[in-house]
Amino acid sequence: MPAAAATLERPRVTPPSDDKRWRIVEATMRRHGYQPHALIETLHTVQETFGYIDEDAMRFVAQALRVPLSQVYGVVTFYHFFTLKPQGEHICVVCLGTACYIKGAPQILEAIERTYGIKPGETTKDGKLSLLAARCLGACGLAPVAVFDGQVVGKLTPEDALKQIRRWEEDDGR
Amino acid sequence: MTVDELQQLALKEQEAKQRYRCRINVCVATGCIMCGSERVKEAIEEAVKARGLEKEVLVQGVGCLGLCSAGPMIYVEPDGIIYHKVTPEDAPAIVQGLVSTPVERLICPPDLPFFKRQMKIVMENSGTIDPERIEDYIAVGGYQALIKALTEMSPSEVIEEVTKSGLRGRGGAGYPTGLKWSTVAKANGARKFVICNADEGDPGAYMDRTILESDPHRVLEGMAIAAYAVGAQQGFIYVRAEYPLAIKRLRTAIRQAERLNLLGNNILGTTFSFSVELRIGAGAFVCGEETALMASIEGKRGTPRPRPPYPAEYGLWGYPTLINNVETFANIPPIIRNGGEWFAKIGTERSKGTKVFALAGRVVNTGLIEVPMGITLREIVFDIGGGIPEGKRFKAVQTGGPSGGCIPEQFLDLPVDYESLTKVGSIMGSGGMIVMDETSCMVDVAKFFVEFCMSESCGKCVPCRVGTAHLYELLRRITAGEGTMRDLELLEELCDLVKSASLCGLGQTAPNPVLSTLRYFRHEYEAHILDKTCPAGVCAIRRAEEVPA
Questions:
Q1: What is the pLDDT of residues B251-271, one digit of tens each?
Q2: Considering A151, B115, B271, B370, which has the largest number of Cβ atoms within 10 A of its Cβ?
Q3: Which residues of B touch A140 (CB under 8 A)?
Q4: Phi, psi (5° rounding) for residue B184?
């Protein structure tokens, strides 16, 4: 790592709001000594804590790490993992790796697209469901695979996938 | 902790393990967890408790047992019984089976070629030790190679041993590891870094994820030995964010190793210091390329830069840097323990040792396998993989992900090594192996990979950014039944251009899937163009009269 810059005397950059969650973000930056190379790690923390990265967050991180705002924006938009918009209440990630593709992942994706009128990367208007496509989840032995709110399901069919999403709707309806 | 204390810890652990009459090892790698292995483990623990056998039977979570398609898997030691497709309801029967006869209906025949034809070096502890306990790794001889290197060998002797082993980079390109190490060792720099590339982005490959989930300490040990050999004090592991379990187990492993002074300052009382930090990727395939990966560690956009200068001379923050893949580091401890000559006896003339492959697609046994180099593709697909399901016909096997190619039936008896695969237009790659049968359209497969490279292109150089987009458009036209024979020529021309003019490996290898399918499955392209039909019935071809002029 480059020689540690003098981090002690810098004025404290105040977070965009008094939301307590900013303390978690600040802790990550402090752990890395407010070094510019902590940018991606910090953005991970922002996304984990807030669910997405908005302009206020980018400005704050840019100032605190002394990185140009353009670079922060560049990094956020370069990596697929970071998102500028809030995600839906429920997230469905369909794996489009080679093994899943061969075993029918496109049909699963199409079924969801048709039923809910959203494409990968989009969220339904009511903010209930986000559809995402993954490059490879590394569960090729059980292809095709999708993740429903963090739970990975293998050997999936289009019907199973729709059933899973309908179950969310029913649970929320109650 | 000193060397003696570590040896005592190993003995103590071995004794503790031997106190149990038997061990029930439940696979808790991602594949089996998806099939519910955590609940199975809980149920077995309860069943053991219900019978009051806690002192005799040890129930532990272990790494991958390989046959992912038949999860959750259980391995009972010392009987050597493998159970598959276990449900929590089977738990009492399995525990009963320890005192009477094993549960017949769940047994996975141990003489299955899937298990018998494999040879385990990298995965030797996978399925027998708990990946979340450093003591388990130490008990089976873990960190002995590091001790040997630090106390009995000079850095140049370590490099000598690795060179002798003939180990080549397992990330795909196959660069001799010993040579890379000696270049970094010779390079001048105020500091040096060791990076472990765990950004396993190839779709269809999950060897590195499984190694990290099953035996993380092996990778840390390999990195520490490498750092000692090249003179580095700081290491980074760059892992994909898509692998949360691997990240969690690595964090645990690093913490445990630090606690026992196997990482940190003055390791085991010697003058050698080495610490490891984790860096989490953020979903960019191109970051598997070494210069892009370093940019990402520096907190920047992951775009590659021209080489030379190579990272060995000008790497992370401009310092000499050693970058190796997970599997390469995982091979180091056994090489140091058993000597380079032992390793060099395995495999073929120019490709030594074993290779871990992720076998997936249209094949009966999907999962993770480790085989000696030089084994034929036929043995992998038909013996270990059990052939094609539903009586379908084999068409091709795809190796090397988006940088590789499709190998047709006539080369099934080809020995698997770096040179042979390159000769037929594919590459060894990181180890993804996707089997395709007659239901796969090869033009569609080529389109799939080109689409992948198009959207993963970082956009820095024109041949890759624009070239892959045009390759995709040509393939889209052909699969939509709008292609002409002139398009085939254009396709070949463009492939040549993208291959020769792109900046990094992503662009240079992006045309490989197209070129290899054009070479072996040209008739499928022609059927799409001339007959407007898709032989496999995958592509939705519009009828000729609907095609706009």
A1: 999 999 999 999 999 999 999
A2: B370
A3: 204-206, 358, 360-361, 366, 432, 434
A4: -65, -40
